[in-house]
């Protein structure tokens, strides 16, 4: 079994392969991570792994807790994740390749990364200034009828977009072309749909592309029906993802 050790960046969201991840890094443990990544030569990949948080907080408390005003805030690389960080994270995550790591004058960082490959979390090390993890790659198998399923998902996704735009009384931008490669389709739709983190995590760790597409087709039909019934349903902009604060 081939494994790799990478810095670990837990988030309250799921990163999918091919998707862009903007980060505003201000916590010291993650600032230390970015300083370490900057030591990597520019012609080599500067990578870290992103996992979704199952239980805990991605930002450590910055003030004495309530109701005890004398309680000391939690510090360290595993702050907010309990005595065993492995239990705080979902076990399948995604490697992120950084395109930009820019340090600001105040010591915080502006980071732009892109998801590349899925990985399975094997162990977490909290002995350093930031979390690191032992990871194994998770292969992406196509599964049965992935091509036909991708076509159906794209049609359903277009209907979903139209309903969502109508619910927000917005016009739908039609200029953007969607991909037709089944694996790319499956990840794009999973990232773009308005779903909770557990559902997105389920899609990320689907056993193969076809299984993910089948799940998405059911979700798209169900969500489109809900939006049709509730035209004032709020939803975030599908074309722009918010910056993750860490």
From TrEMBL:
Ranges for domain Lon N-terminal: 6-224
Pfam families per the UniProt record, alphabetical: LON_substr_bdg (PF02190)
Superkingdom per UniProt: Bacteria
InterPro entries per UniProt: Lon_prtase_N (IPR003111), Lon_prtase_N_sf (IPR046336), PUA-like_sf (IPR015947)
SMART domains per record: LON
Name of this protein: LON peptidase substrate-binding domain-containing protein
Natural source organism: Streptomyces thermocarboxydovorans
